[in-house]
């Protein structure tokens, strides 16, 4: 008993405090809604520039209206149909709520008075095509354009002042398509999807409409609610939805388009996101990694012997590869493109080095041949016409001897092994034990 009285007292304090905290806004709103002191009212007007944010509504787009937590925008499609639209108008008027209506051209044509009533009540009026086809996503753009134009023309024609028509468009059935959106954007029309529907076009009860509206709003905490002012279940559900919005502390925002005299409400980019990232909210994505594409092929074949620019008679000079090595080298990773970039000026050096090495190789091979006539022929093939005297000899102590001659050892010719080929890299002059080797040296003539 003691415990329950404490709880009751605590609750009454909370209710009192909440009442004091919220007393300011309902009092102000009640003053704006004569005869309806308990009205939900409209808390503020949001002025938007369609060109800055052309696609809104998180049901389909990244951005939505820059609403604060617990702010709601009511939208009604497909009207006006007098029987239901007039009842919706009355309910909204009794709550001093301003909403946005998306008019079907044929309805405006049949009931222009209904459009004028919406404008007179201060609601925002956009359009929703001429005939409400549910094929906008696959319709030729010329046909879509005719549908869009018909809706705009007949709605504007119904108005006393056509400039009251907002450049807001909702695609029938939300059947979006990129080409269609681009067309609408190019005309300065803002494409309104929604943040949540209440399924009031389905065969569900009005109670279900009310439940879905509140459940889906509570899940997001704010947003654009999509309703239809041509449905009996919507008319039945609307008072209950509005009462519950008020009880849960939601506020209604009225959206109007920016004009020359009425600049857009200042906003930041992140306010147009349903849940702007904050330092305390982890982002569910890794940073984007750049996608590099250098080639269509993932691996390249290992070069063949012929690709190495080696003459057939020199194949025996190459170190032998074991089977394991061959398998490892059967494919190679694709190198980056910049690996092949050779700085300007270095090409000449590379070419001259290669050609002088080739010339030296030829001379060395010629030296090994016993026929003197071939020696002469080899001399005649000197690189770039330069003459060179060949000193070929067979000796057991070749490397030191060649060094004594102050001539460069140009090609050390091992018989077959890899160990001998290492001598070509200068090992011979670094104290490698002498062994029988064929050496050719070049001595330039003065
Ligand atoms: Zn519709």
UniProtKB/TrEMBL annotation:
By what name is this protein known? Chitooligosaccharide deacetylase
Q: Which spans does this entry mark as compositional bias, Basic residues? A: 383-394
Asked if the keyword Metal-binding belongs to this entry, the reply reads yes
Tell me which species this is from. Bradyrhizobium yuanmingense
Signal peptide location: 1-30
Which residues fall in a compositionally biased region of kind Basic and acidic residues? 368-378
Taking every annotated instance into account, which residue ranges of this chain make up the domain NodB homology? 70-253
Query: Which Pfam families does the protein's record reference?
Result: Polysacc_deac_1
According to the UniProt entry, which residue ranges have a biased composition of type Low complexity?
396-409, 418-431
């Amino acid at each position: 008993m003691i415990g329950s009285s404490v709880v009751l007292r605590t609750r009454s304090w909370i209710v009192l405090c909440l009442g004091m905290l919220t007393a300011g806004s309902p009092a102000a709103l009640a003053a704006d809604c004569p005869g309806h002191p308990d009205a939900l009212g409209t808390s503020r007007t949001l002025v938007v520039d369609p060109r800055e944010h052309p696609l809104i509504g998180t049901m389909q787009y990244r951005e939505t209206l820059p609403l604060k937590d617990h702010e709601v925008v009511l939208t009604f499609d497909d009207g006006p149909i007098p029987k239901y639209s007039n009842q919706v108008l009355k309910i909204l008027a009794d709550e001093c709520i301003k909403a946005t209506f998306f008019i079907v051209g044929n309805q405006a044509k049949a009931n222009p008075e209904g459009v004028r009533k919406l404008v007179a009540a201060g609601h925002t009026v956009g359009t929703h095509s001429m005939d409400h086809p549910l094929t906008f996503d696959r319709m030729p753009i010329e046909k879509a354009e005719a549908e869009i134009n018909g809706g705009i023309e007949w709605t504007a024609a119904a108005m006393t002042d056509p400039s009251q028509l907002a450049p807001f468009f909702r695609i029938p059935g939300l059947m979006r398509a990129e080409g269609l959106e681009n067309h609408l954007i190019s005309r300065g029309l803002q494409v309104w999807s929604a943040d949540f529907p209440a399924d009031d076009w389905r065969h569900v009860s009005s109670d279900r409409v009310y439940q879905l509206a509140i459940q889906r709003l509570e899940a997001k905490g704010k947003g654009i609610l999509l309703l239809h002012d041509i449905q009996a279940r919507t008319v039945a559900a609307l008072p209950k939805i509005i009462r519950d919005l008020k009880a849960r502390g939601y506020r209604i925002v009225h959206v109007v388009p920016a004009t020359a005299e009425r600049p857009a409400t200042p906003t930041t980019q992140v306010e147009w996101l349903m849940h702007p990232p904050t330092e305390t909210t982890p982002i569910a994505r890794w940073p984007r990694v750049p996608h590099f594409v250098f080639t269509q092929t993932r691996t390249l074949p290992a070069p063949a012997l012929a690709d190495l620019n080696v003459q057939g008679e020199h194949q025996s000079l190459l170190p032998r590869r074991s089977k394991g090595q061959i398998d490892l080298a059967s494919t190679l990773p694709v190198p980056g493109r910049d690996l092949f970039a050779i700085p300007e000026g270095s090409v000449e050096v590379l070419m001259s080095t290669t050609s002088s090495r080739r010339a030296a190789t030829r001379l060395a091979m010629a030296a090994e041949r016993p026929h003197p006539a071939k020696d002469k022929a080899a001399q005649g093939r000197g690189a770039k016409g330069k003459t060179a005297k060949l000193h070929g000899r067979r000796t057991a102590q070749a490397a030191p001897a060649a060094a004594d001659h102050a001539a460069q050892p140009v090609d050390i010719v091992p018989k077959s092994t890899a160990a001998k080929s290492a001598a070509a890299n200068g090992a011979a002059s670094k104290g490698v034990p002498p062994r029988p080797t064929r050496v050719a040296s070049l001595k330039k003539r003065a």
